[in-house]
């Protein structure tokens, strides 16, 4: 009976994951930009390599420095998206980040929305972390951490941050993995000031892998992260005056944003998000009752998720071991069903 139940459960998971991968193959309905059109170098200029057509950027980390780029404008809400491929082999201590922030302008009250990719020792998986800060609320981190249902070093996958005045949705390919809806109780913790987009690679040996146990080993370098299909859809604003840089900018930008369809959370998307979270999330601040005895105001507790986590917000250990085996089985089955279309 137990074996029959597991086989049925596996078939359901595989079916849902197949739908997820099929939707992932669809392009996001928005214009991509050349680097020169919307971005500029931020640091480690010698480690930023642009393709001949200016639509593909490589960021390197070596002994001399990391590297990064920034959007040329700041945006009041929008869609920030790129297809990214991560470094392979030994990547402990390496962090690749794709995020929005206004820390250069509002040093003490900055807002931030993060995708952070955390490297690992050889043979271990990359993890991706999302986080949210509003109005300088860095003491109230809202981290969530996930494994990925594919190998992010083999092929490009699209990562997108959708930010409106009411909701924040993080996407991997076409699948939403996290939604934060604005509540009155959040107050200034909800990001609301204009932000720039950043993409960086850097040495985070002091915390990124097993709490700093494993450091960057430069004999495996240089570490290369690749970005393409760069997309920015949003209202460009003057960060000081908080006004649009052109009279029709916000109207046109909002129409473009709605046209992507990413701001609408359909029942199908919500089901896909829940399936992803139940199978690939490894930490959530919403379930970390040791850190937050009183839950964060935007947290919507889902019992199907809650039962999977310990009071410190991390996966229950025994489930973690089973989950790695389950993920491997799902990956193998999905690859077979897709005829090796997806490298996972």
From TrEMBL:
Contains at least one intrachain disulfide bond essential for its enzymatic activity. The active site is at residues 112, 116. The keyword NADP does not apply. Residues 1-227 form the GH16 domain. It is found in: Secreted, Cell wall; Secreted, Extracellular space, Apoplast. Its main location: secreted. One of its GO terms (biological process) is cell wall organization. It is an enzyme of class 2 (transferase). Residues 1-27 form the signal peptide. GO terms for molecular function: hydrolase activity, hydrolyzing O-glycosyl compounds; xyloglucan:xyloglucosyl transferase activity. The keyword NAD does not apply. PROSITE patterns: GH16_2 (PS51762). Keywords: Apoplast, Cell wall, Cell wall biogenesis/degradation, Disulfide bond, Glycosidase, Hydrolase, Secreted, Signal, Transferase. Gene3D superfamilies: 2.60.120.200. Its EC number is 2.4.1.207. GO terms for cellular component: apoplast. Belongs to the glycosyl hydrolase 16 family. Catalyzes xyloglucan endohydrolysis (XEH) and/or endotransglycosylation (XET). Cleaves and religates xyloglucan polymers, an essential constituent of the primary cell wall, and thereby participates in cell wall construction of growing tissues. This is Xyloglucan endotransglucosylase/hydrolase.
């Amino acid at each position: 009976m137990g074996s029959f139940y597991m086989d049925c459960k596996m078939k359901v998971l595989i079916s849902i994951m197949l739908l997820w991968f099929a939707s992932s193959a669809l392009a996001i309905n928005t214009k991509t930009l050349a680097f020169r059109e919307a971005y500029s170098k931020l640091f480690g200029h010698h480690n930023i390599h642009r393709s001949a057509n200016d639509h593909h950027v490589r960021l390197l980390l070596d002994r001399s420095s990391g590297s990064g780029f920034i959007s040329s404008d700041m945006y009041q809400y929008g869609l920030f998206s790129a297809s990214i491929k991560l470094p392979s082999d030994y990547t402990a201590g390496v962090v690749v980040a794709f995020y929005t922030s206004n820390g250069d302008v509002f040093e003490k009250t900055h807002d931030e929305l993060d995708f952070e990719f955390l490297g690992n020792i050889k043979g271990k998986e990359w993890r991706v972390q999302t986080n949210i800060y509003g109005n300088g609320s860095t003491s109230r981190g809202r981290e969530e951490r996930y494994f990925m249902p594919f190998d992010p070093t083999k092929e490009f996958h699209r990562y997108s941050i959708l930010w409106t005045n009411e909701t924040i949705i993080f996407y991997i390919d076409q699948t939403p993995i996290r939604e934060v809806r604005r509540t009155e109780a959040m107050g200034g913790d909800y990001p609301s000031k204009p932000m720039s987009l950043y993409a960086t690679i850097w040495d985070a040996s002091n915390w990124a892998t097993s709490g700093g146990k494993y450091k960057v080993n430069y004999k495996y370098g240089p570490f290369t992260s690749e970005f393409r299909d760069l997309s920015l859809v949003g209202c460009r604003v003057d960060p000081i005056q908080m006004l649009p840089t052109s009279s029709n900018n916000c109207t046109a930008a909002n129409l473009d944003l709605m046209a992507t369809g990413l701001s609408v959370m359909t029942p199908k998307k919500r089901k896909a998000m829940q399936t992803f979270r139940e199978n690939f999330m490894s930490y959530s601040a919403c379930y970390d009752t040791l850190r937050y005895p009183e839950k964060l105001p935007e947290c919507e507790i889902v019992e199907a998720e809650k039962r999977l986590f310990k009071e410190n917000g991390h996966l229950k250990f025994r489930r973690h071991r089973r989950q790695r085996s389950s993920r491997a089985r799902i990956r193998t089955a999905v690859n077979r069903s897709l005829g090796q279309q997806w490298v996972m």
